[in-house]
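[Meeting: bench + compute handoff]

Bench side (C.D.) handed over the final construct sequence. Compute side (W.E.) agreed to return the predicted structure before the next meeting so the bench team could plan truncations. Sequence as handed over:
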Amino acid sequence: MYGGTKWFVRDFMEVLRMESALEGTNISTATLYPAAINTELLTTITDPSSREQMEGLYETYGIAPERIADVVAFAMDLLDDTTVNEFTVGPANQPW
């Protein structure tokens, strides 16, 4: 489900971008794919084994949520004649 949902959102945003361009609206769209971002997400995991695995991942690779805010600010600051369609944001030390 996760992969299918992600691809649906990607395709939906691309179609929205193309239709907006065809209508001449200059509406920019951007899809943001964040990796391990240090948020309260881990507190919502109820399975102890899964939570332990995720805590290890986040301890090693988690980055500050401010990095996502920086990317959003960058996208919003672009001039009306420019768009960046996708951002994949994650830690520089993660081999993905």
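W.E. noted at the follow-up: The longest helix spans residues 2-23. C.D. will use this when planning the next construct.
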